[in-house]
Amino acid sequence: MAGPPSSRPGWFAVPAPVRELFKLFPLATLPPESLPERSPEPSSSSSRRARPRLYVFARTWEDANNGRPSFNPQCLKWQTFLRIAGVDVDLVPSNNHASPSGALPFLLPPTTTTTTTTTTTTTTTPTSSSPEKESAKPTPASKTTSTIPLTGAKIHRYAQDHATTATSPDAPPSRTEAYEALLSQSLRPAWLYALYLHPSNTPLLKTLYLPPSPILHLPALHALRDAAASEILKTTRSPSISPPQLLADAADALRALSTLLAGDEWFFGRPDPGLFDAEVFAYTWPILDQEFGWAAAAEDSFALAEALAGFDNLVSHRRRLYERCWPEAIAAAH
């Protein structure tokens, strides 16, 4: 004979207070929040861009709005080349997490709007005085087409296709490859050490790359330095990092670039600056920028700026390209 049902709740019974709480949900359904301004628009966005947008590392929105040179060499390279080509862009401060490729910079071309015409047929009801009629009325409709973010060589192609000023054709790869290797394998490791690993420049590194939250400073600092050290070791193929050797290699690279430039205005004897000029400028500009925030010379035992300053033609090339690409800054300074 079956006993009376148990009054004790089962294992999966929800306590009464919790049940009452669940009855209150959802309290409200909030509208979706828009993406931050530093993020690219979703493909379904109906907003229109009249000018290309270049997403870069920048200190402030003011710097970006004024088109000031980015503090990141990779961003500055493409920012400079777009200016060489006369392609006006809007700069947007961003970070690697907002980039579709995982790295800055990337370029969003302007949105395109196409107008199509559709024909609407209207039928009138027949009457005793007029027979049934059909009339066709054209109806214009516009459609905004989103664009795909461009990186690397695609930015190069976009700048060439939309150039408004004369640009020199790229030098043959057989001439440029060795010198590009000097930048990536000798000058860049020294740059990474100076900014990311040199203790005297820690305050500068925090200003440029670390999040505002003090809680996140230490883990973010360790992550940045680990990544920089890993890249230096991978590039130099050395078991350990030797600052004197990095500085010596950078000085040798600068000497080779100085010899290549010789007495010409632009590299490879071109009548106008090209992509390689922008690549060199992307390092020479921040290295010698007195407002960049580098440690004082008395505190800096890694004299990368001093090594560069010893090559007068590279210093002149830096000044010449800045005056050409940032005339508004020169005018404002006077």
What does this structure look like?
By secondary structure, the chain is mainly alpha-helical. Among the domains are: 53-111 and 147-157, Glutaredoxin; 171-333, Glutathione S-transferase Yfyf (Class Pi), Chain A, domain 2, CATH 1.20.1050. The chain contains 12 helices and 5 strands. It has helices at 16-22, 61-65, 73-84, 153-161, 173-197, 202-209, 214-236, 243-261, 275-288, 304-309, 312-325, 327-333; strands at 53-56, 90-93, 106-108, 112-124, 133-145. The strands form 2 sheets. The protein has a 3-stranded mixed β-sheet. A two-stranded antiparallel sheet has the order 4-5. A hairpin with an 8-residue loop joins β4 and β5. The longest helix has 25 residues, at 173-197. The chain is globular and about 85 Å long. The chain starts with 15 loop residues before the first helix and ends with a helix. The mean pLDDT is 84.
Keywords summarizing the entry:
334 residues, mainly alpha, Glutaredoxin, Glutathione S-transferase Yfyf (Class Pi), Chain A, domain 2, three-stranded mixed β-sheet, 12 helices
Could you tell me the CATH topology label of the domain at 171-333.
Answer: Glutathione S-transferase Yfyf (Class Pi), Chain A, domain 2
Q: Spans with pLDDT under 50 lasting ≥5 residues?
A: none
- Could you give the count of β-strands? 5
**If you compute it from the alpha carbons, what radius of gyration comes out, rounded to the nearest whole angstrom?**
30 Å
- Large-scale geometry: globular
pLDDT averaged over residues:
84
